Protein backbone atom coordinates (compact mmCIF):
# COMPACT_ATOMS: atom_id res chain seq x y z
CA UNK A 1 0.00 0.00 0.00
CA UNK A 2 1.09 3.55 -0.72
CA UNK A 3 0.07 6.45 1.49
CA UNK A 4 0.40 10.01 0.24
CA UNK A 5 0.79 12.31 3.25
CA UNK A 6 0.03 15.90 2.23
CA UNK A 7 0.30 19.11 4.23
CA UNK A 8 -2.53 21.60 3.70
CA UNK A 9 -2.09 24.69 1.53
CA UNK A 10 -0.88 28.05 2.80
CA UNK A 11 -3.31 29.79 5.17
CA UNK A 12 -3.80 33.37 6.27
CA UNK A 13 -2.35 32.53 9.67
CA UNK A 14 0.68 30.92 8.02
CA UNK A 15 1.36 34.25 6.34
CA UNK A 16 0.71 36.20 9.54
CA UNK A 17 2.94 33.80 11.50
CA UNK A 18 0.21 32.85 13.94
CA UNK A 19 -0.02 29.51 15.70
CA UNK A 20 -3.01 27.61 14.34
CA UNK A 21 -3.35 24.38 16.27
CA UNK A 22 -6.96 23.20 16.38
CA UNK A 23 -8.27 26.62 15.41
CA UNK A 24 -8.89 27.25 11.75
CA UNK A 25 -7.67 29.78 9.25
CA UNK A 26 -8.78 29.77 5.61
CA UNK A 27 -6.49 29.01 2.71
CA UNK A 28 -4.99 32.04 1.03
CA UNK A 29 -5.36 32.54 -2.72
CA UNK A 30 -1.88 31.06 -3.04
CA UNK A 31 -2.89 28.14 -0.82
CA UNK A 32 -5.79 27.35 -3.14
CA UNK A 33 -3.49 27.55 -6.16
CA UNK A 34 -1.01 25.24 -4.43
CA UNK A 35 -3.72 22.66 -3.77
CA UNK A 36 -5.06 22.86 -7.33
CA UNK A 37 -1.55 22.45 -8.74
CA UNK A 38 -1.06 19.33 -6.65
CA UNK A 39 -4.42 18.07 -7.86
CA UNK A 40 -3.26 18.58 -11.43
CA UNK A 41 0.01 16.79 -10.67
CA UNK A 42 -1.79 13.76 -9.21
CA UNK A 43 -4.82 13.71 -11.51
CA UNK A 44 -3.84 10.51 -13.31
CA UNK A 45 -3.04 8.57 -10.14
CA UNK A 46 -5.78 6.29 -8.84
CA UNK A 47 -6.51 6.75 -5.16
CA UNK A 48 -8.85 4.35 -3.40
CA UNK A 49 -9.57 6.82 -0.61
CA UNK A 50 -9.09 10.49 0.21
CA UNK A 51 -8.83 11.62 3.82
CA UNK A 52 -8.31 14.85 5.71
CA UNK A 53 -8.70 16.08 9.24
CA UNK A 54 -11.89 17.94 10.12
CA UNK A 55 -10.10 21.29 10.05
CA UNK A 56 -11.27 23.29 7.05
CA UNK A 57 -7.79 24.13 5.78
CA UNK A 58 -7.04 20.42 5.43
CA UNK A 59 -10.46 19.43 4.11
CA UNK A 60 -10.49 22.18 1.49
CA UNK A 61 -7.00 21.18 0.37
CA UNK A 62 -8.09 17.54 0.02
CA UNK A 63 -11.12 18.50 -2.04
CA UNK A 64 -9.04 20.63 -4.41
CA UNK A 65 -6.64 17.70 -4.84
CA UNK A 66 -9.49 15.23 -5.37
CA UNK A 67 -10.89 17.37 -8.15
CA UNK A 68 -13.64 15.69 -10.16
CA UNK A 69 -13.18 12.23 -8.69
CA UNK A 70 -16.42 10.79 -7.31
CA UNK A 71 -15.11 9.77 -3.87
CA UNK A 72 -15.92 11.86 -0.84
CA UNK A 73 -13.12 13.13 1.38
CA UNK A 74 -13.40 11.18 4.63
CA UNK A 75 -12.42 12.59 8.02
CA UNK A 76 -9.55 11.10 10.02
CA UNK A 77 -8.80 13.26 13.05
CA UNK A 78 -6.05 11.14 14.59
CA UNK A 79 -3.75 13.16 12.32
CA UNK A 80 -5.10 16.57 13.36
CA UNK A 81 -2.67 19.39 14.20
CA UNK A 82 -0.93 19.79 17.55
CA UNK A 83 -3.15 21.69 19.98
CA UNK A 84 -1.71 25.06 21.00
CA UNK A 85 -4.25 25.53 23.79
CA UNK A 86 -4.74 29.14 24.85
CA UNK A 87 -2.03 30.28 22.42
CA UNK A 88 -3.97 29.45 19.27
CA UNK A 89 -4.22 32.44 16.98
CA UNK A 90 -1.40 34.31 18.68
CA UNK A 91 1.48 35.72 16.65
CA UNK A 92 4.87 34.10 17.13
CA UNK A 93 6.38 37.37 18.35
CA UNK A 94 3.68 37.77 21.02
CA UNK A 95 3.98 34.14 22.09
CA UNK A 96 7.72 34.69 22.46
CA UNK A 97 7.13 37.59 24.86
CA UNK A 98 4.87 35.45 27.04
CA UNK A 99 6.73 32.14 26.93
CA UNK A 100 10.21 32.70 25.45
CA UNK A 101 11.59 29.34 26.56
CA UNK A 102 8.64 27.36 25.23
CA UNK A 103 8.71 29.10 21.85
CA UNK A 104 12.38 28.19 21.57
CA UNK A 105 11.61 24.60 22.55
CA UNK A 106 8.69 24.39 20.10
CA UNK A 107 10.97 25.11 17.16
CA UNK A 108 14.34 23.73 18.27
CA UNK A 109 13.97 21.30 21.17
CA UNK A 110 10.60 19.61 20.88
CA UNK A 111 11.11 17.04 23.63
CA UNK A 112 11.54 19.85 26.16
CA UNK A 113 8.46 21.70 24.92
CA UNK A 114 6.02 21.90 27.84
CA UNK A 115 2.74 23.68 27.00
CA UNK A 116 0.92 22.72 30.21
CA UNK A 117 0.76 26.32 31.43
CA UNK A 118 -1.36 27.28 28.41
CA UNK A 119 -3.21 23.95 28.03
CA UNK A 120 -1.48 22.86 24.85
CA UNK A 121 -0.36 19.46 23.59
CA UNK A 122 3.26 18.33 23.88
CA UNK A 123 5.16 16.68 21.03
CA UNK A 124 5.38 13.52 23.12
CA UNK A 125 1.58 13.50 23.33
CA UNK A 126 1.35 14.12 19.58
CA UNK A 127 3.68 11.19 18.92
CA UNK A 128 1.56 8.90 21.09
CA UNK A 129 -1.58 10.06 19.31
CA UNK A 130 -0.28 9.66 15.77
CA UNK A 131 1.40 6.30 16.36
CA UNK A 132 -1.88 4.88 17.61
CA UNK A 133 -3.64 6.66 14.77
CA UNK A 134 -1.27 5.18 12.21
CA UNK A 135 -2.02 1.66 13.41
CA UNK A 136 -5.73 2.41 13.13
CA UNK A 137 -5.24 3.99 9.68
CA UNK A 138 -3.38 0.95 8.36
CA UNK A 139 -6.11 -1.42 9.55
CA UNK A 140 -8.75 0.82 8.01
CA UNK A 141 -7.04 0.82 4.61
CA UNK A 142 -5.28 -2.55 4.53
CA UNK A 143 -7.21 -3.72 1.47
CA UNK A 144 -6.44 -0.64 -0.62
CA UNK A 145 -3.56 0.01 -2.98
CA UNK A 146 -3.19 3.77 -2.60
CA UNK A 147 -4.71 6.41 -0.31
CA UNK A 148 -4.12 10.11 0.29
CA UNK A 149 -4.47 12.02 3.55
CA UNK A 150 -4.15 15.76 4.18
CA UNK A 151 -2.73 16.69 7.56
CA UNK A 152 -0.65 19.41 9.24
CA UNK A 153 2.93 20.59 9.69
CA UNK A 154 3.85 19.67 13.27
CA UNK A 155 1.81 16.48 13.12
CA UNK A 156 3.40 15.31 9.87
CA UNK A 157 6.86 16.16 11.19
CA UNK A 158 6.22 13.93 14.20
CA UNK A 159 4.48 11.16 12.28
CA UNK A 160 7.04 10.91 9.47
CA UNK A 161 9.89 10.95 11.99
CA UNK A 162 8.28 7.94 13.67
CA UNK A 163 7.67 6.17 10.36
CA UNK A 164 11.32 6.63 9.39
CA UNK A 165 12.32 4.61 12.46
CA UNK A 166 14.38 7.35 14.05
CA UNK A 167 14.76 7.65 17.80
CA UNK A 168 12.49 10.23 19.38
CA UNK A 169 15.55 12.08 20.71
CA UNK A 170 16.28 13.28 17.15
CA UNK A 171 12.82 14.76 16.52
CA UNK A 172 14.22 18.30 16.43
CA UNK A 173 16.28 17.36 13.38
CA UNK A 174 13.19 16.44 11.35
CA UNK A 175 12.03 19.00 8.79
CA UNK A 176 8.45 20.23 8.68
CA UNK A 177 6.93 19.36 5.29
CA UNK A 178 6.09 22.40 3.17
CA UNK A 179 2.57 23.53 2.29
CA UNK A 180 0.94 21.07 -0.17
CA UNK A 181 4.07 18.95 -0.26
CA UNK A 182 3.42 15.25 -0.51
CA UNK A 183 5.40 12.45 1.10
CA UNK A 184 4.93 8.93 -0.21
CA UNK A 185 5.11 6.11 2.31
CA UNK A 186 5.12 2.49 1.20
CA UNK A 187 3.72 -0.03 3.67
CA UNK A 188 4.40 -3.69 3.00
CA UNK A 189 4.70 -6.76 5.24
CA UNK A 190 4.44 -4.66 8.38
CA UNK A 191 7.24 -2.28 7.36
CA UNK A 192 7.25 1.37 6.30
CA UNK A 193 9.48 2.99 3.71
CA UNK A 194 9.49 6.68 2.79
CA UNK A 195 10.05 6.76 -0.98
CA UNK A 196 9.56 10.50 -1.55
CA UNK A 197 9.75 13.22 1.12
CA UNK A 198 8.10 16.66 1.00
CA UNK A 199 7.83 16.73 -2.79
CA UNK A 200 6.90 20.19 -4.11
CA UNK A 201 7.73 19.77 -7.79
CA UNK A 202 4.14 20.78 -8.66
CA UNK A 203 4.93 24.26 -7.30
CA UNK A 204 8.26 24.53 -9.08
CA UNK A 205 6.82 23.58 -12.46
CA UNK A 206 4.35 26.47 -12.56
From TrEMBL:
GO cellular component: cytoplasm
Record: residues binding substrate: 7-14, 57
One GO molecular-function entry: isomerase activity
Active-site feature positions: 8, 81
Documented EC number(s): 5.4.2.-
Alphabetized UniProt keyword annotations: Isomerase
Domain of life: Bacteria
InterPro entries per the UniProt record, alphabetical: His_Pase_superF_clade-1 (IPR013078), His_PPase_superfam (IPR029033), PGM_Phosphatase (IPR050275)
PANTHER family to which the protein is assigned, alphabetical: BROAD-SPECIFICITY PHOSPHATASE YOR283W-RELATED, HISTIDINE PHOSPHATASE FAMILY PROTEIN-RELATED
Protein name: Phosphoglycerate mutase family protein
Lineage start: Bacteria, Fusobacteriati, Fusobacteriota, Fusobacteriia, Fusobacteriales
Amino acid sequence: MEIYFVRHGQTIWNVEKRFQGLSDSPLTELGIIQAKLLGEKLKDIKFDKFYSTSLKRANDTANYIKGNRKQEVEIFDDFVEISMGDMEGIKQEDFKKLYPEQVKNFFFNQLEYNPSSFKGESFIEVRERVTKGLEKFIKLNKNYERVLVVSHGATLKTLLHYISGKDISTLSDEAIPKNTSYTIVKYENGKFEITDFSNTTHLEEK
